[in-house]
Design brief:
Number of strands: 21
Number of helices: 16
Structural class: alpha/beta
Helix content: 25-40%
Mean pLDDT: 81
Largest sheet: 11 strands, mixed
Distance between the termini: 30 Å
Strand content: 15-25%
Length: 549
């Protein structure tokens, strides 16, 4: 059984499509690890290559195998994958590297070309901030420039960097990754593949079909494409709105099956009707059955049956689905003999199927049949480097490809964690299109949820995030453009009750999640933190929020 559990590169890094397989070039870490401070024009173009894990040495390349089973590299150990800064957005993004690897113990971030991380932005000081390795942690220190440094929307003096911290320097926004930064180095935020010709980039996009994304999504798509021509069943895991049906449709297209792609939302069909809807019925099977009706499984004959929210399927229907998988036969309601069908089954769920099995709500034998290969799709908050290209793709899909995206609009999107993922991003873009009379989407076109969140962006006197040593008030000089704090109002009102302080214990965090029934935003308000920080703590403790909903 193959699995591809896509987690953002953290300790242990990101995985390959299937253990033991040689990664494909588009999946591999770049052979030309882009050094910090090297402008794009100075790099040598060429495709990435992969070395085997046995060739690891002080200067060896990081392989996908090392990303799965190795440890993050640091200035103290060379083996493993690199921490780094991954670009999320900058108006002049073509002048940036997609990722900046932290090779050295002490690096300066600034406009000066001699800086370890050179940021070609007018709003950036020549020596703007310092990133350095101390006591086994990466630290970010503001150097007192006129525009300051923000981490997760807060002005900071010095902060311990955590995985997925969002760092703003001038008009450039990055995320910090603890390891695996080299994997992002070829993927620009507009979907251009560095080192590839325009024709090669266009061909790569064409092969991806409906799927849009950078390194993380491209790796998953490559894994899915490898199994598409086989007959094995696939389970797609991930939160609501992460694109599971898009991946299922693309799997069907790549598989080349001549029949239809038939989606079924198991949660939307009443349990009393699910059997007849799936397997059909014969005339006279029950009152009102005045004719034969082929079921959804029969409609997918020769094609792909996509069972969305399989975790919500009643146990009785699960037994009949198991028969379909084992014998390739269905028995319509009222029929006296089985009927042959040829379907490939792809399932999706946001629920924990192992927990459902333990509770007796999901058959273990059915799970074993379905879970011949699985992919876990990352939530949008863990792949924000894709937000710009997703917006461009959505604008094109909805007939407004020429519409621009202002920096305040992008800042709002990147500061929000999209609990409903790409589905919510699409709704945001569609809303903006409907309201926009000009040439670009701006802050005024953002939904109320994001506008409300941005009221605290770069707020004075805000309490430090976890790991922050000190927080500075906004510097007296702000950029003339509305891009730094954006055009969002800044609130100075104190909360009605003081927030909790410090990092919660696992027990305390679980207690609050239970109290608020899994409402991450409500837990965040208890601490005066944003949802992203609560998600970081949950990831640290291995907490699945669905257990509390």
């Amino acid at each position: 059984m193959g699995t591809d559990d896509q987690n953002p590169p953290g300790p242990g890094g990101a995985g390959t499509g299937s253990p033991g397989e040689e990664p494909r070039p588009e999946m591999a870490s770049t052979a030309q690890a882009i050094s910090v401070g090297t402008p794009p024009s100075a790099r040598t173009a060429g495709p990435a290559s992969v070395q085997g894990p046995t060739s690891a040495g002080p200067n060896a390349l990081t392989t996908a195998t090392m990303q799965v089973y190795g440890t993050p590299a640091s200035p103290e150990t060379q083996r493993g994958t690199r921490a780094g800064l991954v670009l999320l957005y900058a108006p002049s993004y073509t002048q940036f590297s997609p990722a900046y690897l932290l090779h050295e113990r002490d690096l300066i971030i600034g406009r000066d070309p001699a800086s370890g991380i050179c940021i070609p932005e007018a709003a950036v000081s020549r020596q703007h901030a310092r990133i350095h390795y101390r006591d086994g942690q990466w630290m970010l220190t503001d150097l007192g420039g006129r525009n300051g440094t923000l981490v997760d929307g807060e002005f900071v003096s010095e902060v311990v960097l955590e995985h997925l911290h969002e760092i703003r320097v001038g008009d450039a926004i990055f995320k910090f990754v603890q390891s695996g930064a080299e994997s992002y180095a070829r993927y620009r935020i507009d979907s251009t593949i560095l080192g590839a010709s325009p024709a090669e980039t266009a061909a790569h996009r064409a092969t991806r079909g409906r799927i849009v994304g950078g390194y993380q999504i491209d790796r998953l798509a490559s894994a899915l494409e490898r199994v598409a021509k086989t007959e094995i069943s696939v389970v797609l895991l991930g939160e609501s709105g992460t694109g599971k049906e898009v991946f299922a449709q693309q799997l069907h297209d790549w598989g080349g099956r001549k029949g239809a792609f038939q989606p079924v939302n198991c949660a939307a069909i009443p349990a009393t009707l699910l059997e007849s809807e799936l397997f059909g019925y014969k005339r006279g099977a029950f009152s009102g059955a005045d004719r034969d009706k082929p079921g959804l499984v029969r409609a997918a004959d020769g094609g792909t049956l996509f069972l969305d929210e399989i975790g919500d399927m009643p146990v009785d229907a699960q037994a009949k689905l198991l028969r379909v998988l084992q014998s390739k036969e269905i028995v319509p309601v009222g029929a006296h003999a089985p009927e042959r069908v040829d379907v490939r089954v792809v399932c999706a769920t946001h629920r924990d199927l192992s927990k459902l099995q333990a509770e007796g709500k999901f058959r273990g034998d059915l799970f074993a049949r379905l879970n011949e290969y699985s992919l876990r799709l990352p939530p949008l908050r863990e792949r924000k480097e894709d937000i710009f290209m997703l917006c461009r793709a959505l604008l094109e899909r909805h007939g407004r490809a020429a519409l621009g995206l202002t920096f305040p609009f992008m800042t709002g999107l990147l500061h929000y964690d999209f609990p409903f993922n790409v589905r919510e991003l699409e709704a945001t873009v569609k809303r903006g299109i409907a309201l926009c009379d000009g040439a670009a989407l701006d802050a005024q076109h953002l939904p109320d949820e994001i506008k409300e969140l941005m009221k605290s962006y770069a707020q004075r006197g805000r309490k430090p995030s976890s790991g922050a040593i000190s927080i500075l008030p906004p510097p007296p000089h702000m950029p003339s453009s509305p891009g730094f704090a954006g055009s969002y109002p800044v609130s100075h009102a104190a909360s009605q009750s003081p927030p909790r302080t410090g990092v919660p214990s696992e027990e305390e965090l679980r207690s609050l999640l239970a109290q608020h029934k899994g409402n991450v935003a409500a837990v965040g308000r208890e601490f005066g933190k944003e949802r992203m920080q609560i998600h970081r703590w949950m990831k640290r403790y291995g907490i699945n929020v669905d257990e509390y909903r």
